[in-house]
């Protein structure tokens, strides 16, 4: 298939483009700046989703499928700039949808942030979304635009709600220094004196390797059918605490990670996905999402970047 990947130079977009090329697809990558790196075999197209005339030119020749990954993603920033997050994440998606050829397959990269504070664990797709941040709300609004458009018969859509993504491919680690694993590895590398932990470090989360997530996108493209919309959680289902992450970083790197415990702030004690549906329907299996593997790959990327 001829596939367009938006946000193709991003952390997830790069991994998805790489997997699509390996699967034999013809892949174009939408990027905002010409100097952004793409995987071998992905053709760069410079365009901003908010620039509708430029986007019309890009989509003049129709694509068989689109992996839509371009978005603003930092939760804390979304509270300071909610309108910007809605403009990019929602209006950018609407612009793209309005220009897709009939029958296009779309995979939309969403987030577990749409669930907010969950009613039960593990989190199933049937749980009513209730986002607690502008970021989560903007992603849910974009999801709804995608799904309602699919129900007109214009496109086929699969929404992938991703939990915490980590690890690396091709030496490209997670560029967001606010996330736990990059912060812990920065301490191990001597870039920061200590890791600040909320409360006792007992909060449990899960992680999925960025390459496993990329594979889910490839499988989802094959499953998309015009007039249908599906939603899947993509997560490992393996819960680990902040303390577990620190211990694993120390074991993998062979270096200490000093910690400083701050007064506890309100946060869910447990966030774990139920990814039964994506395993059953798409045959997806996380192959690299064990915590030691994730950290080893992320550490290798960091040390490579340090020369």
From TrEMBL:
InterPro entries: Epimerase_deHydtase, NAD(P)-bd_dom_sf. Pfam families: Epimerase. One of its GO terms (biological process) is galactose catabolic process via UDP-galactose, Leloir pathway. Pathway: Carbohydrate metabolism; galactose metabolism. Residues 3-235 form the NAD-dependent epimerase/dehydratase domain. It comes from the Bacteria. Belongs to the NAD(P)-dependent epimerase/dehydratase family. This is UDP-glucose 4-epimerase.
């Amino acid at each position: 298939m001829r596939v367009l990947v938006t946000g193709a130079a991003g952390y997830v977009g790069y991994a998805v483009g790489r997997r699509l090329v390996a699967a034999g697809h013809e892949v174009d990558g939408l990027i905002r700046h010409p100097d952004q790196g793409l995987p071998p075999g992905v053709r760069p197209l410079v365009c901003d989703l908010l620039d509708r005339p430029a986007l019309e030119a890009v989509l003049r020749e129709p694509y068989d499928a689109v992996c839509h990954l371009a978005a603003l993603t930092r939760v804390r920033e979304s509270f300071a700039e909610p309108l910007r997050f809605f403009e990019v994440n929602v209006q950018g998606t609407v612009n793209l949808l309005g220009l897709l050829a009939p029958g296009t397959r779309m995979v939309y990269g969403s987030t577990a942030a749409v669930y907010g504070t969950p009613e039960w664990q593990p989190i199933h797709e049937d749980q009513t979304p209730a986002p607690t941040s502008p970021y989560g709300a903007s992603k849910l609004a974009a999801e709804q635009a995608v799904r309602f458009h699919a129900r007109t018969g214009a496109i086929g859509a699969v929404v992938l709600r991703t939990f915490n993504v980590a690890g690396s491919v091709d030496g490209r680690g997670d560029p967001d220094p606010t996330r736990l694993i990059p912060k812990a590895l920065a301490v191990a590398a001597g870039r920061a004196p200590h890791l600040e932990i909320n409360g006792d470090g007992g909060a449990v989360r899960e992680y999925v390797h960025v390459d496993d997530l990329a594979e889910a996108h490839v499988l989802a493209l094959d499953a998309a059918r015009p007039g249908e919309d599906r939603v899947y959680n993509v997560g490992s289902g393996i819960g680990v605490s902040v303390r577990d992450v620190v211990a694993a970083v120390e074991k993998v790197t062979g270096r200490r990670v000093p910690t400083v415990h701050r007064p506890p702030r309100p946060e869910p004690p447990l966030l774990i996905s139920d990814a039964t549906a994506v395993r059953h329907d798409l045959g997806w299996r996380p192959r690299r999402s064990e915590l030691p593997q994730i950290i080893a790959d992320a550490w290798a990327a960091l040390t490579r970047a340090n020369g």
